[in-house]
Amino acid sequence: MIKTEKKRLMRTRKRISQKRPHFARFESWRFVRLKDQWRKPKGVDNHMRIQNRGWPRVVKPGYRGPRAVRGLHPSGYEEVMVYNVGDLSLIDVETQVARIGGSVGTKKRVAILTEAISQKIKVLNPGRALDLVEKEEETEDNEKEADAE
After folding, report:
1. Nearest 5 degrees, angle CA 64-CA 67-CA 73?
2. DSSP string, 66-106
3. Residue 73: inside a domain, yes or no?
């Protein structure tokens, strides 16, 4: 897909998302035991299913965004989950970005970040491990300067 076309579709998706209503479960505002997450109304006389005026909107295909940019990160890149350093080799730098898995610990996260920086891969959630990587780089630079003197 051409870059200009992708930008246009991303803007269209953003505009559609801003108009999209919050789809609430039927009468979730009335009962505490019902969560606000969407469930399709299935009752015979259900006002939402019949789509009566004055009742919340029902999920329909018309509320979706453009197919070409569906599922992309707001930056326009495709997200790839990374759990170890080897997963970084699967990433295309032009179209994809890395998101480190939540179960990855600090030690492995630092290793992933250092490798991502060397391969010029963008990471969406570097977290506090980025500070550790920067500190390591500073200490390496200081050691090199001390050796040069």
Report:
1. 85
2. -GGGTT--TTSPEEEEESSGGGGGG--TTTEEEEE-TT--H
3. no
Q: What is the DSSP string of 1-60?
A: --HHHHHHHHHHHHHHHHHPPP-PPTTTTT-TTS-SS------TT-HHHHT-TTS-----
Residue 99 has which token pair?
A: 């998101």
Domain of residue 54, residue span: 3-68
Domain C-terminal end among 16, 33, 68 = 68
For the stretch 40-98, pLDDT in tens is 999 999 999 999 999 999 999 999 999 999 999 999 999 999 999 999 999 999 999 99
On whether the CB atoms of residues 87 and 99 are closer than 8 A, the answer is: no
CA–CA separation, 86 vs 77, rounded Å? 20
